[in-house]
Amino acid sequence: MSADIPVITRHRLGIFAEMGFGDPSTCAEYAAGFQTFAAREMAAGRFHSWLAEDDGGVIVAGGAVLIVPWPANPKHRKQQRAFLFNVFTEPALRRRGIARTLVQTMLDWCRGQEFGSVFLHASDAGRQLYQSMGFQTTSEMRFDF
Q1: Which of 81, 128, 137 shows the shortest CA–CA distance to 103?
Q2: pTM for the complete prediction?
Q3: Which one of 19, 24, 65, 136 has the fewest CB atoms closer than 10 angstroms to its CB?
Q4: What domains, with CATH codes, occur in the chain?
């Protein structure tokens, strides 16, 4: 839902700060670009987000799935790829199963959409959670310019 984009953006900036990618207070230009991207992709039906609230209705965690065009292969015939990202839980509420529940909900949704697999890039902090849920390390590589 586009009304959720500000909190999704705040989560994203929090993730990057924790990974040492910069101070969220200096990322206004990036944040504005991300909000434009998220709104466009939501409107196109490619960006799906889930948020968790506490008993008082305060958003305490979230995550998203981005559907991207991807060539099929003999094992997975769908011409799209499900990319799980932006999983974030407020620091004071971590280690309570909130992220696990969100990730499982997103995996269930992806299974219902008939994706054969789901991809993500794990932070060091999130790697243990994903591995405990059955995610496997792949041979994906990257070249930075």
Answers
A1: 128
A2: 0.91
A3: 136
A4: 2-132 (3.40.630.30)
Contact 130, 121 (CB under 8 A): no
Instruction: Dump pLDDT digits (tens) for 92-125.
Output: 999 999 999 999 999 999 999 999 999 999 988 8
Q: Tell which wins on pLDDT, 136 or 142.
A: 136
- Which residue from 50, 53, 116, 124 is spatially nearest to 87, judged by alpha carbons? 50
Percent of the chain whose predicted confidence (pLDDT) is above 90: 73
Distance CA 56, CA 8 (A): 19
- In the block, residue with structure tokens 């984009």: 5
**Which residues, in sequence order, are bridge partners of residue 89?**
61
First to last CA, the chain: 34
